[in-house]
Amino acid sequence: AEAIRRQVGVNRVVAEVFPQDKEKEIRRLQNEGKKVAMVGDGINDAPALARADVGIAIGAGTDVAIESADIVLMKSDLLDVSTAIQLSKAVIRNIKQNLFWAFIYNIIGIPVAAGLFYLPFDLKLNPMIGAFAMSFSSVFVVSNALR
């Protein structure tokens, strides 16, 4: 653990501790206001995986560890932890983009479709154009999600 700590530049490691000590360390970090991710593969990791904000189990691990975790890596490669975090961030970014475009469309489209701009601006919306715009919005959001 110490050799890996030096290689990756981590300030502090906790190694060779009992399962309850792992869980206590995670609780201590959370009480300090930190977000904690735990990677484990065995029965002794299950309490810490369940306590962590994000529990990551190695796919070749025990059933208890896999059930306790939020994410299960299919391979036994620790580099997949980095990939999973990057993928998670990309998914959240994509969801935020889709929510933004859906809200913008609805903020503009619903008042126009309801006729709120008819009296002040003589602006009205043909129902067929509204249906097309709604379909386009759905296609746009789904296409962005598939990207």
Description:
It is a single chain. The protein has 147 residues and is mainly alpha-helical. The chain folds into two domains: 2-76, Rossmann fold (3-Layer(aba) Sandwich); 83-146. It is built from seven helices and three strands. It has helices spanning 2-8, 19-31, 46-51, 63-68, 79-114, 118-121, 127-146, and strands spanning 37-40, 54-58, 71-73. A three-stranded parallel sheet has the order 1-2-3. Strand 2 (54-58), helix 4 and strand 3 form a beta-alpha-beta unit. Helix 5 packs antiparallel against helix 7 (127-146). The chain is elongated, with a radius of gyration of 24 Å. The model has no long low-confidence stretch (mean pLDDT 89).
CATH architecture identity of the largest domain: 3-Layer(aba) Sandwich
Rg over alpha carbons: 24 Å
Quote the distance from N terminus to C terminus: 39 Å
Number of helices: 7
Placed side by side, the strands forming the largest sheet appear as 1-2-3
The residue ranges in which pLDDT falls below 50 over 5 or more consecutive positions are none
Q: How do the helices and strands follow one another from N- to C-terminus?
A: HHEHEHEHHH
Question: Total domains, how many?
Answer: 2
Query: How would you name the CATH homologous superfamily of the largest domain?
Result: HAD superfamily/HAD-like
Mean pLDDT: 89
Approximate helicity band: 55-70%
CATH topology of the largest domain: Rossmann fold
Tell me, briefly, the overall form: elongated
- Structural class category: mainly alpha
The CATH class of the largest domain is identified as Alpha Beta
Q: Let me know the largest β-sheet.
A: 3 strands, parallel
Portion in beta strands: 5-15%
- Please count the beta strands (DSSP E, at least 2 residues each): 3
